[in-house]
Amino acid sequence: MSDRVRFAPSPTGFLHVGSARTALFNWLHARSTGGTYVLRIEDTDAERNRPEMTSGLLSELEWLGLDWDEGPFYQSEQKERHREVVQDLLDRELAYLCDGDNELVKGNQIRDGLAVRFRMPKNEVIEFEDVVRGSVSFATDDLEDFVIWRSNGTPMFLLANAVDDADMGITHAIRGEDLLSGVPKVLLLLQAMDAPQPTYAHLPLLVNEQRKKLSKRRDDVSIADYRDRGYLPEAMVNYLSLLGWGPPDDIEVRPLEEIVQLFAIEDVNKAAAFFDLKKLEFVNATHLRELKKNDFVERAKPWVEDKAAPWPPDKFDEGRYLTMVDLVQEKLRTLSDLPRFIDFIFLDEPVDDPDSWHKAMVKAPFASEILEGTFTALTDCTWETEAIKEVVTKVGENLGIKLGKTQAPVRVAVTGRTVGPPLFETMALCMDREEVLNRISRARSRL
RNA sequence: GCCCCCAUCGUCUAGCGGCCUAGGACGCCUGCCUUUCACGCAGGUAACACGGGUUCAAAUCCCGUUGGGGGUGCCA
């Protein structure tokens, strides 16, 4: 029989990077073993559930490319089944009714206003083999009777989880280490139901710089936010796959399909992993560079569309944009870097960046002479890359400085910034001579 | 408090008793390339938490210490 795994998020917010990693490792296990990946929404907590969050969750999973084979199933729809199991446990006196003060109440019929607790056996040791952690054991004497049915008539997580896993034939429960200490209780429930126990694999937690579990409050954990900040889904899953696991051949940046080939849940390590934005950026930049041009253009759309772009819509020019893409794609860390590499093309004025101005115009020597010289020479040179480069080079030679220094004031005059696309190509291919001369002239008078 | 888990460069990891004077990657630093930036290339920096065992041999096994984390809800 092939493995059946599930990703079972609760819909209490957008997809969290920690959850995404759990989803990914489940997906990888299913795909690499030819198993089945089930999606189940654990929405038993009516109070905290926000139905509208589910759609975000699903679309973010889709965005990451983690397609599921079955579901989404909604746990809330199994309420009668959960009730049936709880009632059975009550009938067999493996559970008991209790009131708001946790006092035992006589009777064995589920009733509104009363919760149901599972009776913890005495003096037993619950031991199980975790695929990543090895043998783990708990003494039942350290555990308390726990609630499996709320007084408001809904099942508790542990109960619903155990019942659903059993009913759905889940063979492997792959999830975060924060759920490790709940295992003995689930095992007891499964045993009481006479259901088989799944194989567990508890993944190391993802932590912040303080080594604390990533949290919604403190940390940047929303997958949607990363998407909106210009990270590619393939970079996201690639990076996430590297937290708690490493490819045997040491090649870290690669397509998901290759990771599927190499992944084995047994190889996952135990220590918590710091979510390192720097490395994510590196992985993202690498994937960004490898995109085919038409693919890149497609993905970049949200950043250059009318409503998002920093330039007026009517100034945008498709042809010039496509030319600029060739010049800047390799320079980006994220897609959101794109606008500031090309905005000056579609703006009336170069961007005003005080730091750049100070560095290239105020602090650097000969700024005025360079602008003067290039203005004159650009007036009648051939308007193409090599000719422009020659002109600027010559101006620098006359002043005894290298091209790297000479281009700086020109770049700031034209683009507004010290960093940007290749200057001469940009000027020759995407700007008019008149516009360039105007900008140089304006910079001169500002000096 | 109690229970459980974890411990290799700053970070992510390789290592599953001898191949380790510990490998790779990110970051950082140096140089080269170069029209800025980025890429690329060549180098460099930097780790087995500590103490006991076991063994001919330990980063790898065992015990303890210390440190960190998770759990301990009628949340999931």
Helix content: 40-55%
Q: Number of helix segments?
A: 18
Kindly report the average pLDDT value.
94
Largest sheet: 4 strands, antiparallel
Low-pLDDT parts are none
- Can you tell me the overall shape? elongated
Oligomerization: single chain
Model description:
- The chain has 447 residues and is an alpha/beta fold.
- It contains 18 helices and 13 strands.
- The chain has helices at 17-33, 51-64, 79-91, 157-167, 183-193, 223-228, 233-241, 256-262, 277-290, 293-304, 318-328, 338-342, 354-363, 367-380, 385-399, 403-415, 423-430, 433-446, and strands at 4-7, 36-41, 70-74, 95-98, 104-105, 115-118, 125-130, 134-139, 146-149, 172-176, 199-203, 206-207, 273-274.
- The strands form 5 sheets. It has a 4-stranded antiparallel β-sheet with strand order 5-4-6-9.
- Strand 2 (36-41), helix 2 (51-64) and strand 3 (70-74) form a beta-alpha-beta unit.
- The longest helix has 17 residues, at 17-33.
- The radius of gyration is 30 Å and the shape is elongated.
- The relative contact order is 0.09.
- The structure holds one RNA strand of 76 nucleotides.
